[in-house]
Specification:
The structure is a single chain. By secondary structure, the chain is an alpha+beta fold. It has a single domain, classed as Pseudouridine synthase, CATH 3.30.2350. 17% of the residues lie in helices and 32% in strands. It has four helices and 13 strands. It has helices at residues 35-43, 66-77, 151-157, 209-219, and strands spanning 4-8, 12-17, 47-48, 57-63, 82-90, 97-101, 104-105, 115-116, 125-134, 137-144, 162-163, 185-193, 200-204.
């Protein structure tokens, strides 16, 4: 579960979070490993700037001092941060690009799912682009303009699409041909102004092994019936 270090200086620590590692402490079980208690023994005090779901892998930015934390928080608040995710999506979308701009309501049902709600939802925008298309799924890049809980999963579900491995938003959809033990979502790139220098910086995180394995299965699908 130890995250890979992507970049470090006096202000920033940027890591590639492993799937299964919490971003912040679990309120019910504080003993579970999370980013700070895994990293602080080596790097000292750290401030969480943003979060990823437990199952989601990829880039997370941590601040190494309060000034950097405040500057990065302001960029997130004013939506200056550029975040792109890669997801393995099923079934294969019929479109190449889609700008999903649908308001979302969190905790919309008993299972705490996020749902499209045109009257009570908060503004949410996800720009989706199919990078690779296969018979039973696709590699998709999603750039989010907002940060609603489960935004990508809820927006995809509104078009009857799910991430491979999805177990929360898949009700009512055909059983997927490719299975995975977690939702196949990866925080691929992040770009922002450095809190001290002000220069524009961008970082990329490689895919974890399980993501690459499922991607290979999608690529080698040979028929709509799912033979691989």
């Amino acid at each position: 579960m130890t995250p890979t270090i992507i970049f470090e200086d006096d202000d920033l620590l940027i890591v590639n979070k492993s799937p299964g590692l919490l971003s912040v402490s679990d309120g019910y079980n504080p003993s579970l490993p999370h980013l700070r208690n895994v990293l602080e023994p080596q790097f000292g005090s750290l401030w969480i700037v943003h979060r990823l779901d437990k199952e989601t892998s990829g880039l997370i930015v941590l601040a190494k001092n309060p000034d950097a934390h405040r500057a990065l928080n302001e960029q997130f608040r004013t939506r200056q941060i550029e975040k792109k995710y890669h997801g393995l999506v099923t079934p294969t979308p019929q479109w190449r690009e889609m700008d999903i701009n649908l308001p979302l309501q969190t905790d919309a049902d008993r299972r705490h799912r996020t749902r499209v709600n045109l009257t009570q939802g908060k503004d949410a925008q996800s720009n989706c682009r199919v990078l690779k298309r296969f018979l039973c799924g696709a590699l998709m890049e999603i750039q989010i303009k907002t940060g609603i809980t489960h935004q990508i999963r809820a927006h995809l579900r509104s078009f009857n699409l799910i991430l491979v491995g999805e177990s929360l938003y898949n009700a009512g959809l055909p059983h997927p041909q490719i299975q995975a033990e977690r939702t196949m979502l990866h925080s691929r790139t992040i770009a922002f102004k450095h809190p001290t220098s002000g220069s524009w910086v961008e970082y990329t995180a490689p895919y974890p092994e399980d993501f690459r394995d499922i991607y290979t299965k999608l690529k080698t699908t040979t028929s709509p019936g799912g033979a691989i």
